[in-house]
Structure formats: C-alpha cells, structure tokens
Amino acid sequence: MAELSGSVERLIDLALEEDLSLGDVTSEATIPADAAGTGRFLAKDDLVLAGTAVAARVFERLGATCRFDGPDGTPFRKGQFLGEAAGPLRALLAAERTALNFLQRLTGVATATRRAAEALGAGGGTTRLLDTRKTTPGWRRLEKDAVRAGGGVNHRFSLGDGLLIKDNHVAACAGVGEAVRRARARGNAMLRVEVEVVDLPGLEEAIGAGADIVLLDNMDDATMAEAVRRARGRVLLEASGNMTLERLPRVAATGVDYVSMGALTHSAPAADISFEVEPAR
Fold first, then answer.
1. What is the per-residue pLDDT across 173-208, written as a single tens digit (0 to 9) for each?
2. Active-site option among 212, 217, 226, 272
3. Is 134 a known active-site residue?
4. Is-catalytic flag, 78?
5. Are 111 and 33 members of one domain?
6. Do the beta carbons of residue 105 and residue 138 sit within 8 Å?
7. Annotated catalytic residue within 166, 181, 234, 250
8. Is 18 exposed, middle or buried (0-12, 13-18, 19+ CB in 10 A)?
9. Which of 61, 66, 146, 251 has the smallest C-beta neighbourhood within 10 Å, fewest atoms?
C-alpha cells in the first residue's frame, strides 16, 4: 500500500483513539474473538473515489487487510462495490467508522472537484481549477490529494509556499502597487507574486508594479472578460468568489487562466458509502 506521511499517521492515531479509547464493548460482547469475515464497500451514489490509502491503513492498524478496485480518481456508479476488507470480525467492525469517515469525506471532495472541473471544461478553453487553504484543520494534505484525484490543481499548501497578497495585506500597505513592490523587494525571488484586486484599476496597478498573477476577487463576468482582454500576455489571471457549477462555464469562456474554489474542500458533501460485513462460513 502507499506510504503515508507522518502527519497522516498521527491523524489516524487521533481518530482511532477517539473511537476506541475504551475498546469496542459491543463487538467484544457479541462476537467471538476468533470469528473472521469480509466487508465490502458499496457506492450509494455516483462518486469519484479518494482516500483509499488512509482508509486501508485504518484496517491494517487493527489487524485486517483492505483493497480497493481502483486507484484514487476512479469513478464508480451507484450500486457498484468499491473494494473489500477481510480479517477478524472484531477488527472490521472496530475500523469501520473511522475508515468510512476518511473515505466518505475525501471521496466527497474528489467528487465535487470532478463536477466542477467538468463544468469548467464545458466553457471551452484551458482554465484550470484550483483549491484553497480553506481545509479541515489537520486534513490539508489528504484533502488536497483528493482535489488532485478529482481533476483539480493544488494552490498553496501553506503560507510559505507562495506570495499571495490579499485584501488585508493591501490595506496594511496602503495600496495594491505598494504591496506588490514590497513583495518584489523583500520576498523570496524564487516565489511568484500574486495579488488580489477587486476592480480594473487595481488590475492595472498590479500589472504596473510587476505582479506575476492577479486574483480577480468577486468580479462579474463582463468585468472579468475585460480584465482578460487587458491582461493578455502581461500577467496570469485567477478568478475567485461566488463560483457555482452553473457559473463555471461562463467564467471559463472569459479566458481566465485559473478559477479557485474554497468550496471544493470546505463545503463538499461526504460521499454516501456503506460497509457491508459477512461472516466467514
């Protein structure tokens, strides 16, 4: 199975401790210690699979085996089985909820990302879908992996990954241009400078100060199209704010280079997946 990072292993530790600090009294009272069986994961809706490595690791930690019928990013239809776990029945039942919490959450992120990426594609062009840092605390690596599985592209993983000048930075520097100039003068020369603007004058100021990427915050479609016309060949553009599946084709049609959506991680509904156990005969 895929090797997991130390931070993900610690997250599994916390999740198992949360559920099993007092043991599994129900299974211990009702199921013989030597009873074995298998459990199968069932898609209760159409979905894009993600989180398989961490879900499998939960079962492995408790003495069972687990495999899935496709890598992360594989689409499954409602009613299809996704994979199975096998081993002591007590281990399967002890791992079930923790494994499903990881699997359902991350599959939900991948599924939401795939739908958004397909909506962007319907608008033509080459606009790419970005995530944000609006992630569940401690889950960032997992959720960003799920975004990639769904067809998205990762933005920053942390505050040290890129120079992104937001509205509060602009306010603290008394202007877009001054903020970009400070970033250019004092920032890491290996990092691109991105700045958020809310209007076309802000765009011109950002370009004049030497920004590499300009984030168009909450612009309407017409203003965004004009921004693309003005910026073509001068700077990359990222659009963000009020992005919905219905709007994405129109945004892509404006010709922006990127669209970022915090909703991919902060609002993706968990996928509906069940785990059906059968005792060994």
1. 999 999 999 999 988 888 899 999 999 999 999 999
2. 217
3. yes
4. no
5. yes
6. no
7. 166
8. exposed
9. 61
